[in-house]
Design goal:
about 375 residues, alpha/beta, Immunoglobulin-like, Rossmann fold, 2 domains, nine-stranded mixed beta sheet, six-stranded parallel beta sheet
Length: about 375
């Protein structure tokens, strides 16, 4: 079934209902804890300190909006009960109530001192959530404290867990402390590790994103697990609002190695013109993802100048071009570029993949889905 509704229409519907709720002055139940989403991250050494880039979101579910949104989309798209349930779970974080001006306090598990942390900016000032519930910054912990936490948590591969302890906040997070030397893998998500069929067109992408169970790209999880001592960073053009379903699928269901996440920011504050601009650009501006990936990947390289990197992507978007730019910037660190060829560039445009390791995949054709 090809969907007639565009992605921007779906987001517009969800955001408009959220805006109506805001304009109507929705009642807030102060007895309900606000959920803090801590996105998987990493830590890098600088002198004798571990610096941990942090991103978190504070929100409350709008369960009362989920039903009418789902009911309307079900009628418009003739969804069955399974598709309806999937859509309801995936759109939840687009219509959630973003909590602004929030300070989030968290502690690392098993810390006997229960040392409290807050996300700080580059000047060491506490960061509060913006109008979209987001807060971005960093924390720093000493090498001695990190070593003790790794021991107390009986850590595997440098992973530490922490939890929110501020009033009315609930949430847990994960960070991997990465040594200055070793092997790291930077991986795209859509059509690299998860079949999204982006070259097939927006209608099919919508269905695969919002209305069906995710499907892992064949053989990719097995390949990733062969890099036993590597660390992983997943860089995606998908919006942060899809982080929870994506990370659950990759790490809990498809058995990909756990790693940090780096995604696209799509605002949803109805009072901001950037909300509608971001929503439009998510579909129409390919350069938005191109620039996003170059910026995010370059920062990871800068944090780990002593590590080697394998870059894994697909031919359906601009991963080959992104990775060539990265190799030009960091020629001594890029060990290999691997491209899953989903549009048959190995035959149609072999120069585009020159010097890259090619993984042959089923060719994605515009307007046609392999799941039909």
């Amino acid at each position: 079934m090809l969907l007639s509704m565009t992605f921007s229409t779906i987001l517009g519907l969800m955001l408009s209902l959220s805006g109506l709720a805001f304009a109507a002055g929705e009642n807030q139940n102060t007895d309900i804890d606000e959920e803090v989403i801590f996105y998987n991250t990493y830590g890098y050494l600088h002198d004798d300190m571990w610096i941990i880039p942090m991103r978190a979101n504070v929100m409350e579910s709008r369960r009362y909006l989920e039903r009418p949104v789902t009911s309307l989309v079900r009628r418009l798209q003739n969804l069955n009960s399974e598709q309806e349930g999937i859509f309801r779970s995936r759109m939840r974080y687009f219509i959630s109530d973003s909590e602004s001006r929030e300070e989030v306090v968290f502690v690392f598990d098993e810390d006997p001192e229960e040392t409290q942390f807050q996300i700080l900016d580059t000047f060491g000032e506490v960061v509060t959530t913006d109008a979209n519930g987001n807060k971005v910054g960093e924390i720093r912990i000493s090498k001695e404290m990190a070593a003790e936490l790794l021991r107390l948590q009986d850590s595997k591969n440098g992973w530490l867990t922490f939890r929110a302890v501020s009033d009315e906040h609930t949430g847990i997070g994960r960070v991997r402390l990465i040594e200055p030397e070793g092997l790291s893998v930077i991986s795209d998500v859509d059509d690299t590790v998860k079949v999204t069929e982006i070259p097939a067109g927006a209608q099919i992408v919508i269905r695969n994103t919002f209305f069906k169970e995710y499907t892992a790209a064949e053989g990719m999880a097995e390949m990733y697990r062969e890099w036993e001592d590597a660390t992983f960073h997943y860089v995606s053009g998908s919006p942060w609002q899809l982080y929870l379903p994506l990370s659950k699928f990759l790490f809990d269901e498809a058995d990909f190695p756990e790693g940090s996440f780096h995604m696209k920011t799509v605002t949803k504050n109805m009072r901001s013109i950037s909300t509608w601009r971001n929503m439009r650009d998510l579909i129409t501006d390919e350069n938005m993802t191109y620039d996003q990936k170059i910026t995010q990947i370059s920062l990871i390289f800068e944090h780990f100048p002593g590590r080697e990197f394998i870059l894994v992507g697909d031919s359906g978007e601009r991963d080959p071009e992104v990775y060539r730019i990265i190799k030009e910037r960091f020629p001594d660190q890029v060990k290999e570029i691997i491209i899953r060829d989903v549009i048959n560039d190995r035959e149609m445009r072999p120069e585009r993949l020159e010097g890259m390791t090619i993984i042959e995949a089923e060719t994605i054709v515009p307007g046609v889905s392999q799941f039909n």
